[in-house]
Design a protein that fits this description.
heterodimer, A: mainly alpha, MetI-like fold, two-stranded antiparallel sheet, 2 strands, B: 299 residues, alpha/beta, 10 strands
């Protein structure tokens, strides 16, 4: 066989394998999504989103769980974003390389690797019991916020690292201080990526079950919270409840698929929003 | 170009009148930026005045001895070119002149750099931001900010505390004119700087550096990423800017050094091998290493 022919066959084989494998990933994703959509679509309605659960959670809607999840997302966002973004900026822009920085980096990585149930346990012991907040939105938000913190720090750091040092040098060479350079040049350039990362971290938080298990989530609570010290239902936990320990698991199966679909749609919307925002902000950055 | 008017009488130029007319009380300004062109902004032929001086300068990147006892003096209103093969230390030395190497961790510097007879490394009262304002820099790759053309040039003014809109507009226009870019961009100042060609971007970066009226302009291979026509424009510009600034240019291109510079320094392996009039370096170098380099035997 000619060498050129052999080379071509090898290449076709390599790319063919890669193609088949990446398509199979797509197929698996479509099967999962299709399964949920087919089973959950029939219960999806305005009423399903806005009504209280009824008849031992076999009928009615998921309104309190949806509101609960949105509360927890907002709460954990308030806790994780400012602290995480500022730490990320400090660590990437100001801290000198050295033992302390490496130490913090290792700790952040470890924190990100801790199973979420451990966060749940810590949240229960510290926020619920020690601080006496009880099972509440604030305890759950702090627990979820802690969980999101290392992700937020990492996202911020990565976004800042991606900003070329050419921009920083240009700014310093004009007599700008480090803070002016950070705030007027580096942050605006990094902003689209930071925002995208933050939204993605939120979509991850929205589906977490373990951290809210002991800190906020209610088994059945057909009313809306009136303060941050109230318990709430939440989508992922609600899904768990009606799939495993409801009063009538068979009868509530469609509700479970509906809940799963809503959760997936929520995450999907957030991801699309993240993409749209990155594109929009990316364009805006060039102009200002 | 508007130099002629400044040559004759500072206040007679209409451009300067507007600037002088602005009530200084309204402005939050650093002391250093004045409304009248500062003394160092006056075109002059005082090419015998030493502007920049390096005394036995050593620089280490960790254990690597990158600059080995550089001593040289650069004269006011002249163009000094640094030439030498890659890694010879010419860019590193250039970056010691506005303390840009401070940004790199693990750099150690010994010796002195004097600007207007003042030591920029060992003076207690030296403010680095102020130093960099006086010593402008243009980089190898055009690096405009992802901002509008106007905001790119205005940036240096803004970070130095100037808020007066009219003043900033005047200065942006003048800087763009000095950088020979005004005619090409005057109708699209609000457009992103990224819409300009590479050569235009580099002239924008020059305008940006000029806007804060430095007295020294450092250029690190400013044309190496540009096409021949853009390169010619930049070289022409350097020649014109000489009357206002002391220019130090690093270049890989020996023809370029020959065309634009008055004095040329040849660096090799971290040493300053030879520093003399450009004509002398290119026609009758004293050192055999210089001779070998300029005749293309290595590098």
């Amino acid at each position: 066989m000619q060498y050129a022919e052999k080379k071509r066959l090898k290449q076709n084989f390599a790319f063919g394998t890669l193609r088949v494998l990446s398509y199979s990933v797509l197929v698996i994703l479509i099967i999962i999504l299709g399964f949920i959509v087919l089973n959950g679509f029939s219960v999806l309605s305005w009423e399903f989103l806005t009504a209280m659960p009824e008849d031992g959670m076999t009928k009615g809607g998921i309104f309190p769980a949806l509101i609960g999840t949105l509360c927890l997302m907002a709460g954990s966002m308030i806790i994780a974003f400012p602290v995480g973004v500022m730490s990320g900026i400090y660590m990437n822009e100001y801290m000198r390389d050295g033992f302390f920085k490496r130490f913090i980096n290792v700790m952040t990585n470890n924190l990100a690797g801790i199973p979420s149930i451990v966060f749940g346990l810590f949240g229960m012991e510290f926020f619920v019991n020690k601080l006496g907040w009880g099972d509440s939105i604030i305890a759950g938000s702090f627990t979820l916020g802690l969980l999101a913190l290392p992700v937020v720090i990492r996202v911020t750091e990565e976004a800042l690292k991606a900003v070329s040092k050419n921009f920083r040098e240009a700014s310093f060479a004009l007599g700008a201080s480090k803070w002016q350079t950070t705030s007027k040049v580096v942050l605006p350039i990094a902003l689209p990526n930071i925002v995208t990362g933050l939204i993605l971290s939120m979509s991850r938080v929205s589906g977490e079950t373990a951290p809210i298990l002991f800190t906020v989530a209610a088994y059945f609570l057909p009313k809306l919270p009136s303060s941050i010290f109230d318990q709430v239902m939440a989508l992922p936990y609600h899904l768990y409840v009606i799939s495993t320990s409801g009063t009538n698991i068979e009868a509530s199966r469609p509700m479970a698929y509906g809940t799963a679909l809503v959760l997936i749609l929520l995450v999907l919307t957030l991801n699309l929003l993240a993409n749209a925002l990155r594109r929009y902000l990316g364009k805006k950055v060039k102009m200002n | 170009m508007n130099y002629e008017s400044k040559n004759n009488n500072m206040s007679s130029s209409p451009e300067e009148k507007v600037i002088n007319a602005i009530d200084t009380k309204d402005l939050k300004l650093n002391k250093e930026i004045k409304f009248e062109p500062s003394a160092n902004y006056t075109p002059s032929n005082k090419t015998s005045v030493t502007k920049l001086e390096s005394k036995n300068l050593h620089l280490y990147y960790g254990d690597f001895h990158a600059l080995k006892g550089i001593s040289m003096a650069m004269l006011q209103n002249t163009v000094t070119a640094f030439i030498g093969p890659s890694g010879c230390g010419k860019s590193t030395f250039l970056r010691t002149l506005n303390r840009m190497n401070d940004l790199i961790e693990g750099v150690k510097i010994e010796g002195n750099i004097l600007i207007d007879s003042k030591d920029i490394y060992n003076s207690r009262d030296l403010n680095i931001d102020e130093l960099r304002k006086r010593v402008g820099m243009v980089f190898q790759k055009p690096n405009p900010f992802p901002k509008s053309i106007f905001e790119n040039v205005a940036y240096g003014l803004r970070v130095n505390g100037i808020t007066h809109k009219k003043f900033i507009e005047e200065r942006v226009e003048r800087s763009l004119k000095q950088a020979a870019l005004w005619e090409e961009v005057k109708d699209k100042l609000k457009k992103s700087a990224f819409e300009l060609s590479g050569g235009q971007q580099q002239r924008l970066c020059i305008a940006r550096a000029l806007a804060i009226e430095p007295s020294i302009l450092l250029m690190d291979e400013p044309a190496s990423a540009l096409d021949p026509i853009s390169t010619a424009k930049i070289e022409e510009l350097i020649y014109e800017l000489k009357s206002l600034y002391t220019i130090v240019i690093v270049t890989h291109n020996m023809q370029q050094a020959g065309r634009v510079s008055d004095r040329t320094a040849f660096f090799y392996l971290g040493e300053l091998v030879e520093f003399d009039d450009t004509k002398k370096i290119f026609t009758n170098p004293a050192d055999v290493r210089t001779q070998n380099y300029i005749t293309g035997r290595f590098g």
